Every structure is written in C-alpha cells, then in structure tokens.
Amino acid sequence: MIKNHIATSLRIEMDDLENIPFQAKGGTFKVYKVFGDALDTILETLNEGLAA
User: What whole-number distance in Å separates Cα of residue 46 and Cα of residue 50?
Assistant: First the structure.
C-alpha cells in the first residue's frame, strides 16, 4: 500500500496513513505497532530518497 501511495504522490506522510486504504488496515496505530519508534526516521529517509 505504501508503494502504491508513493507511486501516485511521490512521498508519504503520517497524515496519509489515516486515509484509505491505510485506515482500513489499522492506520497509524498499526504502522506504529509494526515499525515502532523507527517510523518517523523510516518515513523521513524514504521521502528524502525519493526526492533525490
């Protein structure tokens, strides 16, 4: 889902994780459960890499 979102938006933010289709799978709560405290760093690194 993240890959598909990035393909159309070219970046991903925390707010995006509250929208469909992410909300249907647990939204930010689920993402934090999976990635933990590293989530902010992962999103930042991902977005920086996409912008390069």
Answer: 6
Burial 5-19 (b: 16+ CB within 10 A, else e): beeeeeebeeebbee
Question: Which residues make Cβ contacts (< 8 Å) with residue 27, sequence separation at least 6?
Answer: 17, 18
The structure's pTM equals 0.71
For residue 10, the 8-state DSSP code is: S
Which tokens in the block code for residue 20? 């469909």
Residues 40/48, Cβ–Cβ less than 8 Å: no
User: What pLDDT is stored for residue 23 in this prediction?
Assistant: 92
